[in-house]
Amino acid sequence: MELTQLEYFLKVARMEHLTRAAESLSITQPALSHSILKLEAELGVPLFERKGRNLKINRYGMMFSKHVEMILQEVERGKKEIEEHSNPESGVIHLAYLNILGVDLIPKLIREYQLLNPAITFELSQGDKGAILNQVEEGYSDLMITSEQPVNETYEWVPMLSLPLYLVVSNEHRLADQASVHLGEITGEPFVGLKHNCSLKNSLLARVHHENFTLAATYDAEDLQTVAGFVAAGLGVSVLPRTAGLNLEGIKWIPIAEEGWRWEVGLHLNKERFLSPATARFVAFIKEKAGL
């Protein structure tokens, strides 16, 4: 049973005349007649009483037409909903992002975009890197803003933000008054680290190995805000980007003397996935901001 068969049936049921119904549908009368006969054969009952080209819907046809009307109405509602969600002027953008980015970057980005596109809405989800990657891979989100570049070639990376990383210590720490610090100076210090679901962890470990010094990991926190809280309490030192949500009282931010210690944030998207016109337009906006 095909959707066009149902549309043809409903048109004939309303007009009760094959020729006029065929003209209204812009098809030939034999083609319409064949479609109705095929539908009746599939259902196993006649839907009309025939008198030449005039047809009168019977009780089976009346019974069936009620359901067909509901089906076609639902199809139209579905088409309209898809159109509304994908419309570049008024659609919905499904975006996932790291928790820490919800304090500053994401609200500002959405506000800037909606000032230019006031009818656009966002469906947002946030979490650690594993949670938001799962959102994208499962298709619940089309885009992800994160701090870890993709290693898979099916994903595209659009840089958005680059911030310096700092050594963070408590106000009472012995290094608190330093203008800058070489990270070798914190060898053996209690270090507040990150669990595997934080994207900064892998980058930090790779840099530590390259610089040839060791960290005495004391605590592994779930997110950057918790790291900042532990440092402020004097429970260890850490390395963090100086971003909104982390500027707690009791913390000193010390520039790192070694070059290259930066925190990169960017848009992560699957190049093989269909993007609605609304989403594609948002991606173009981010690329334009990045100068790409």
TrEMBL record:
Coiled-coil portions: none
Keyword Transcription: yes
InterPro entries per UniProt: HTH-type_LysR_regulators (IPR050950), LysR_HTH_N (IPR000847), LysR_subst-bd (IPR005119), WH-like_DNA-bd_sf (IPR036388), WH_DNA-bd_sf (IPR036390)
Pfam families cross-referenced by the UniProt entry: HTH_1, LysR_substrate
Keywords (A to Z) from UniProt: DNA-binding, Transcription, Transcription regulation
Stretches assigned to the HTH lysR-type domain: 1-58
Record keyword Transcription present: yes
Family per record: Belongs to the LysR transcriptional regulatory family.
Name listed for the protein in its UniProt record: HTH-type transcriptional regulator YybE
Native species: Paenibacillus glycanilyticus
